[in-house]
Amino acid sequence: MLLPPKVAHGVADGSVTLAFRRWRRPGVKVGSQFRTVAGVVRVTSVDVVDEEAVDQADAEAAGFADPDALRRRLRPVEPPAEGQPDQRVFRVGLAWAGEDPRLALRDDDDLDAAAVADLDRRLERLDRASSHGAWTMLTLALVRDHPHRRAPDLAAAVGRERDPFKIDVRKLKNLGLTQSFEVGYAISPRGRAYLAATTRPLPEPPVVPDPPAGR
């Protein structure tokens, strides 16, 4: 479940406790947790509601000024396809569950031999599972040498599409090796410590052309 940054920060500070979604079937389960820009959010309830019954308290708890503003956001983008059931409106209770554990992980650069060996195994496993060949060390080198560059620029430099490339970088982030910014990525302290300690070959990454002026 995706939350806009403003809503995610509202959940973190307690000002937002609800979200409303139009789904054919529930998109989340009670007790499930997901990461946002403001930390981990937990689902506390999932109920089907009549959108016309949404009141002022519901709207404010979801970060809207009034029920009409919320209902406008809930309007279907397009009618259901023939044979498909109508989408229902779900009210989802939300609570902040804590900081993103990757934040602490990425700053942990005290890697002993066992930790380095574990990361080696994890990265090798990602490479073996890949349909486009070994990519982990090349991507780490690319991010290290070109911090804060747009994902499309980095992806193009290694002949890949943007979205699959971003998914791969997210896998490295889950291991605490990279961190994301509003624009691009950088190697985390943990990632720098790993690259300094590992014996896995580190490919020479391609040069990423400078973006056009003004972009």
UniProtKB/TrEMBL annotation:
Q: What is this protein called?
A: ASCH domain-containing protein
- Protein species of origin: Nocardioides imazamoxiresistens
